[in-house]
Design brief:
The complex is a heterodimer. Chain A is built from 13 helices and no strands. By secondary structure, chain A is mainly α. Classes of the chains: A mainly alpha, B mainly alpha.
Chain lengths: 287, 337
Amino acid sequence: MAVHSGIVSGRSARRAQRLLAYILLIGGACAFILPFFWMLSESLKGNKEILQYPPDFFPDGFHWDNFSQAWDSLPFNTFLLNSVVIAVLSVAGTLVSCILPAYAFSRLRARGRNVMFGLMLATMMIPAEVTIVPVFVAFNQMKLINTFWPLILPSWFGTAFFIFLIRQFLATVPRELDEAARIDGCGHVRVLFQILLPQIKPAIATVTVFAFIGSWNNLLGPLIYLRDQSKYTMPLGLQLFVSSQYVTKYNQMMAIALLMLIPVVVLFLIAQRSFVRGITLTGMGGR
Amino acid sequence: MTIKQPAGAGSTAVPEAGVPSWPKEDTAAGTPSGRRARRQLSPSARREQRWFYLLTSPWMIGFVLFGGGPVIASGVMSFTNWSILSSPHWAGLANYREMLHDSTFWTALWNTLYFGFGSVIVSLVLTFCMALLLNQRVRGLWFFRLVFYLPTVTSGIATALLWEVVLDPNYGLINRILAVFGIQGPGWLASTTWAMPALIIMSVWGAGNTIVIYLAGLQGVPPALYEAASIDGAGWWRRLCHVTLPMMSPVIFFNCVTGFIVTLQSYVLILVMTQGGPGNATMVLGLYIYREAFEYYNLGYASAMAWVMLVVILIITLVQFLVGRRFVHFESGRGEA
């Protein structure tokens, strides 16, 4: 804005600037949403319409039977059950194995704590490609291939990002609170579970949702470890659906993919406020 | 940057009743005074230390089993010839020598850098601009935040298939929109030149969460700085260059480092979408390692490539750190924790 512009022109310039901001933002938002819209549109198209050129933006009619047909073409009920079992056990493990170290890193002093904390943050930088082969060999020696264990066990041994996240939340809780409880004779476990955890519910919600989504979307793990179709998870089922078809039916493929997204979207909507809090405290978005 | 202050929370505690007395400098162990301090640990402090080790034990065991241990094991395996069925043979540097002559490896390395830098740079610029726009006290902030974040949380095989459909040359959304403007879209995933840009577009879409991270950072810039700059006559552009960018540089830097590592992990989606093709146009290192390890069971060769990748990441991170030291402005004494 020019220094000499009057109040009126300054205000209108600012209004024009905000209008431009809105236009760009709405444009950007549309670009982000459009693929989802296309997914929904495709999933509702009929078998003929899907091969029509040029394709329509909107489906002619709503072919809801795409969903049931795709679901019934493979044992998706089994895949769903497997996915849920693995996800629930992974989330439980993640919560236990991340809350305890987070409390220790935030409240207890010990020799080597800072070194260990630095080491933990450093492990976030290790690409999975490096660890995946030795871990596979280890699980193979333990004869745990084609079981759920390789998909569940690692989450029972702490995840650096989640420990860091919970620790950052714990650091915002005034120490006076737990110190008072300690003076009253509370043990560490009681202080953590009765005094501190109620104060950091957003952190617990964030970790729960991230851990669930991570397990739910995990494709690499099941791809490596699971062999029998009866043990397949939803992502593997979806991949099987794509590869088992001679000509891929885009409408049914999108229908299954859409169904897979529903729990993720619902959980995200529930927990999104907590997410934002977690981002401000860690400076990370968690992927 | 929060990551720089691991133990900031502990330093403010004042020893009082019920709180174990602790030598002031617990990092000084090893120096003569630190050694003296170690002997002076009170029983309650020693108990506290035992609790610390007990409570962190899940992570410590995990570090040995799933973190540091496998990294070392992978390094050892990279010097062997090992298919999972037979026992390993010591091979010395053979795997590394093989890599030198393996054209697929070099293609994969180049593709990895192309993909990594491409998506980090594009998403860095785009998401930062979006965050700047969002920071103008717009209405419906929660809605935009939701929309930009959603692709990140849904990222997985479902969205990979979604992009396969969106990018389809004949029946896809993008070429349909281009056709509205009279443009004949490229073959995207079917084209050797356009497959990689297509994957970069997809990964930028999935990096929308960085908008939310930038926004959180932008909201932490003290308004007084902008006011002072405005009083000094700085316009919009100069405020951006001299206030916003320096203040945001730790966040930008952090997003660069993590963004690069996250991009490297998305090879599973590439496996689903293109299997590395057409030709080897989208064969990235992660995918090649996966192939060698789990399709051909060349565990030694796969480990060697994984280690090369680790070194590449370390070098890139180091360079980013060195560049960062010159350009990143760390606000001192601003502990967020």
